[in-house]
Amino acid sequence: MKVNYKEKNNEDIITPTEGNTSKKKSFRENLKDKRDEKIFTSALNLAYKRVKKDPQKGMLEVVNVFDQFMMPSSKEENSAKAGLERVRNELKDENSKWVSFGSDIVNGIDENIVKTSVKNVGYNAAYKGNTLRNKLQKEYNCNIPWTILFDPTSACNLKCTGCWAAEYGHKNNLTYEEMASIVRQGNELGTYFFILTGGEPLVRKDDVIKLAKEFNDSAFHVFTNGTLIDEEFCKEVKEAGNISFALSIEGTEESTDFRRGDGVFKKVMKAMDLMKENKLLYGASICYTSKNYEYVTDDEFIKMLVDHGCRLAWYFHYMPVGKGADTSLLLDPDQREYVYHKVREIRSAAYPQNIFTIDFQNDGEFINGCIAGGKNYFHINSLGDMEPCVFIHYSDSNIREKTIKECLMSPLFMGFHDNQPFNKNLLKPCPMLENPGRLTKIVNDSGAKNTDMIEPESAEELQEKTTPYAMNWNKKANELWKASREKAESFNK
Questions:
Q1: Is the bond leading into 415 cis (omega within 30 degrees of zero)?
Q2: Whole-prediction pTM
Q3: Most buried by CB count within 10 Å: which residue of 58, 113, 235, 395?
């Protein structure tokens, strides 16, 4: 389906009120936004109907709609264009899992959620937002993020072993006005995707719903333990249309309950089944360690997630954050290599289960290494401290004292901006885990303070814990990176 959104230009028949040239330009830009949004929505609605009738053709039309609205237009300037081309090639095979995946989404997820989510992510974030972010990054010479993570509260109804938030305490909260300000400021910078972490965000579920409804042009993704989800909440989520979820799970019932508490696994399964019945969009959040890495990537485990309605799985490498962190949970090189290959197998078109997987530590080559420090995201804790990463608890700025733009231009965040990527080998993306000394220097040069609310940890202390891991991973990372580059070169020939 070809949509030429440049054909119609009504700027000559609708004139702004008298004013200066800049106001006229603003008016024209706003007019174009409204026109483009209308065309995108119409094209998407048509593609949605066609996916219902013919999944393969309909999915190809969805790709075409996204392709037209990606800016800038060249593959050299926008890596997403190349990604869309690969997706298009995959969809040419009617037996591809991605054809049935698209059909599952359209038929298994509430129509309002599908259309609203795709519009907010596809148009507002990827098209309109990306254009503005690119402009502002050049203007301010700093990172402007794709997404912003923030903690509505430090409170949680669980106390999970190894959770960075478990030690935050339960007394700290962002007010609703502060959360709304984060979203509003994000929109002004071109950010339309927001991730809620904690603590347990759904301790504040009334405010989560209120926020989603007030900012209905933004997408909200909630990381939750799942134990507070009920029927009434599911109905409100469907009405809002712009909320999705990632439910934390550790693998087996035994391993989940060991870390999260007795009976939690069954509560998570019950929540998933309730969300599936209500046709919500959700997936799993999985922290892999030296103890569970095989099971959480096992085919039976993946099938269980899909059977319970999960459409995606976020894989997070265990991070030894906090003074009491158990370094024995860090993976050895062979264990990490196993996860590297297995997650890619699960994500492949040949894999029988319809689920999309991301492994942030091992997928660095697809996102140019570290995505923290505002490059693609940053984190705001429940005290308002702006941190480069959800796992890096250092800050030199607070949103209660500065605007988000000012925080992004602070010494700590500029340290990330000026040093990314931290390694030419993008399988060593993190300045904390795989590149000893890089985070320590940035923290010390910026004068950033540790934000741990219980027992502060110096950058040197954190470096001491991660250095042995980095040294062990180095050889394996170089081998995998060389093989990956050779494969990429062969593919591009």
A1: no
A2: 0.90
A3: 395
Q: From start to end of 135-237, where are the E strands? A: 147-150, 193-196, 219-224
Please state, in angstroms and rounded to a whole number, the distance separating the CA atoms of residues 67 and 84: 7
CATH 3.20.20.70 region(s) of the chain?
Answer: 139-440
C-alpha closest to that of 63 among 86, 39, 31, 37: 86
Structure tokens at 290: 């030296």
Reading the block at residue 60, the tokens are 């190809």
Angle at 265 between CA 263 and CA 267, to 5 degrees: 70
List the chain pLDDT tens, one digit each, 493 residues: 444 433 333 333 223 333 333 344 566 677 777 888 888 888 888 888 989 889 898 888 888 888 777 644 555 455 566 677 888 888 888 888 888 999 999 999 999 999 999 999 988 998 889 889 999 999 999 999 999 999 999 887 666 655 545 555 557 899 999 999 999 999 999 999 999 998 899 999 999 999 999 999 999 999 999 989 999 999 999 999 999 999 998 776 676 656 666 778 888 999 999 999 999 999 999 999 999 999 999 999 999 999 999 999 999 999 999 888 999 999 999 999 999 999 999 999 889 999 999 998 999 988 899 999 999 999 999 999 999 999 999 999 999 999 999 999 999 999 999 999 999 999 999 999 999 999 999 999 999 999 987 788 999 999 999 999 999 999 999 999 999 998 887 766 5
Nearest to 288 by CA among 341, 251, 327: 251
Distance CA 106, CA 403 (A): 39
Q: Is-contact 281 108, C-beta < 8 A? A: no
Within 10 A of 465 (CB to CB), how many other CB atoms are there? 19
Residue with tokens 């599911």: 234
Residues 6 or more apart whose CB falls under 8 angstroms from that of 408 comprise 140, 142, 143, 144, 145, 374, 378
**C-beta of residue 154 within 8 angstroms of C-beta of residue 171:** yes
**139-440 CATH fold:** TIM Barrel (3.20.20)
